[in-house]
Specification:
This protein is mostly helical. Helix content is 39%, strand content 1%. It has a two-stranded antiparallel ribbon.
């Protein structure tokens, strides 16, 4: 462990340059809504969270990390599988959502079961189909590793390791995953240009889609029945399982469309592999179930040229800087070499 930590120390001076205001509120975004513990060192807390996020120690058999399903190159989603894959080959019940601009989300998970970013990681950590671990076991393993003492000291001013501190660090790293420098963002700022097709796509998107996918976050942080026929194998009733409100049956959180080109497969159950399939579904009202949200019905029929224009626009939401940012990447990479 000492050699491992020495390698960490040798790279910390590089990390400090990567962590400078990477998650400051972009000018066009709403107010930033995440509180850092007053006693914590912000950059060190974020870095501690990054190590924990990439460390398989959080799983029951130390084989799987948060990053195993939330991969940076796909905006911290998981493009290999329709449904989440956890320890011991266990298959989950929903598609892995992207992790981006989480500090602006008002609830988490597809059904909004959790409303606090620091608490969100409890669900995947303890979920049987995900990391399958218990909080007491995690505390024991992190404390006995000998690796994290100095990182906790840097973050909190003492080497005391506790579950609230672990969760806070994970939440702080998650809050730092800010995507706000796509071509769309630069176009809005006047520092980049769009093709005629992309302009047409933006206009079509604004007239058909923004009631749910509201700029600049490209979500309204609400829940909706998007008209999908029910997957009878999963029988996922959505938010009503949490709210116990029949009106919420088959409603799911409206996801952000940022980096949509790299976050396939799509929908809460990962049923669509290609973006054109998603647009074809939304632009074909005869495919929607009768209980679809009225905002979905209002999209109407999209012609082939309109579908292509909208897709051309959606491709401008890819933030290559975010997908490659070293401050969000695996901190163990240099150690493993």
């Amino acid at each position: 462990m000492s050699a491992r930590y020495a390698a960490v120390v040798s790279t910390l001076f590089l990390v400090t340059f990567w962590l400078v205001s990477d998650d400051q509120v972009p000018q066009a975004f709403p107010p930033y809504d995440y509180d850092v513990p007053a006693s914590a060192n912000d950059s060190s807390l974020r870095e501690l969270g990054r190590y924990l996020f990439y460390d398989p120690i959080l799983s029951v058999d130390s084989s799987t990390s948060c990053a195993s399903c939330h991969q940076q190159f796909s905006a911290f989603s998981h493009i290999d599988h329709a449904l989440s894959h956890g320890v011991m080959g266990r298959i989950g019940k929903r598609n892995v959502p992207a992790l981006q601009n989480l500090a602006w989300q008002t609830s988490f998970m597809w059904d909004g079961a959790i409303e606090n970013l620091d608490m969100q990681s409890i669900s995947p950590i303890t979920g049987h189909e995900e990391l399958g671990e218990t909080l007491p076991n995690i505390l024991r393993k992190v404390r006995s590793s000998g690796f994290y003492d100095s990182l906790f000291t840097d973050a909190y001013g003492s080497d005391t390791i506790s579950i609230p501190r672990i969760l806070s660090a994970l939440g702080r790293f998650a809050a730092s995953l800010v995507s706000a420098n796509s071509r769309y963002d630069r176009y809005v700022r006047g520092t980049d240009t769009f093709s005629l097709q992309e302009v047409r796509g933006l206009e079509a998107f604004r007239s058909r889609c923004t009631s749910c996918h509201t700029e600049p976050l490209f979500t309204n942080n609400q829940f909706a029945n998007n008209g999908l026929p029910v997957d009878t194998a999963l029988m996922d009733i959505g938010r009503s399982k949490v709210s116990h409100n029949a009106a919420d049956a088959y409603t799911f959180r409206v996801p952000s469309l940022r980096n949509i080109a790299v976050t396939h497969p799509y929908m809460h159950d990962g049923r669509y592999k290609r973006l054109r399939e998603v647009i074809a579904f939304y632009g074909s009202s005869e495919l929607h179930v009768h209980s679809a949200d009225q905002r979905i019905r209002a999209i109407g029929i999209l012609r082939d040229d309109q579908r292509k224009d909208i897709i051309a626009f959606l491709l401008t939401l890819t933030d290559d800087e975010f997908l490659r940012a070293p401050q969000h990447g695996d901190p163990f990479t240099l150690i493993r070499r």
